[in-house]
Amino acid sequence: MPKRIAAFGEVMMRLQVPGYDLLSQSNILNYTFSGTGVNVVSALARFGHTGHLVSRLPGNSLGDAAAAYLRKLGIASSLIHRGGNYLGMYFLENGFGVRPSRVTYSNRLESSFNTALVGEYDYDDIAAQIDAVHFCGISLAMNDGVRHHIKSLARAVKQRGGSVIFDCNYRPSLWGEDGYVKAKPHYEEMLHLSDIVIMNEKDAIYTLGMVTEKTDRREQLMELIPAVAKQYQVQVIAGTHRSINNDNTHTLRGFLFKNECFSFSDQLTFSVYDRIGAGDAFASGIIHGEMEGFPPEKTVRFAAAASMLAHTVSGDTPMASEMEIVRAMTESVGDVER
Length: 338
What we know:
Layout: E1 4-8, E2 12-16, E3 30-34, H1 36-46, E4 50-57, H2 61-72, E5 80-82, E6 89-93, E7 102-106, H3 123-128, E8 132-136, H4 137-140, H5 144-159, E9 163-167, H6 172-175, H7 179-193, E10 196-198, H8 201-207, H9 217-232, E11 236-244, E12 250-258, E13 261-264, E14 268-270, H10 278-292, H11 296-310, H12 322-330
Parallel strand pairs: 1-4, 1-8, 2-6, 4-5, 8-9, 9-10, 10-11
Antiparallel strand pairs: 2-3, 6-7, 11-12, 12-13, 12-14
Helix pairs in contact: 1-10, 5-7, 8-9, 10-11, 11-12
């Protein structure tokens, strides 16, 4: 049965340089609206669930434009508040070959979302309207006020028997100097509250400070992820391993750890049109599979295929339907549809 799934997160304005130019070369920017929560719940809405966003938009024409964009994505707006003056922005320069893509944030800490005061959200009322809620480590990095909202809403949802989903998504630039030390207690608190976690062995090593003598990534994964699940009593942990090939294609493989067993997707190799948001597509696939009761093997294959397809469209937001993802799991695609 379709579920009522919310994400707590910031709506950001994405300002992208056309083609592969640098900001210093171009005088044109294309804008859309995005954010981890936006990407996840819009994908889940495409899969047939009711996707809510818990957020705060500025009370001006920029906030109106963002709200209109969210409606176009099928996101329910009843839990979106209005207030403040600013929307966080980021500038995207597309990478090419050995030059990576680059994201530069602007005006983020002053945004309407990040300046919402205690009391802005009625956590119990929100929890009564949803079956599950998604949080992202990027929001956890913002400030104490946002962290209070995240943890309070997570507790309210848990108390009502709902599911808490946490994507570690650690960003060193957002936590600042000694970021791992600052982040660890907050990550540990969220892991204790979470039913589904998106992470890999690097999160366990660098964010949680776990130690392994293994040097191979897969061996580290096989050792550390079960230890995380046991220590924090997490039901499901999922994530990906990615490599970039000499021909500029990417290779991705997803994993899912549940009931003390690993399940892996096929190893997928594909060309990349736009990488930003592909991790959110993977997360939405894991959430959908868990909410629908898929077997673990199907869930991780579905999530990996969703991530692969997200690399083929412009913008952060996944656009593939469930039918398109299932077809990508089972068929060789690429010809013209007629």
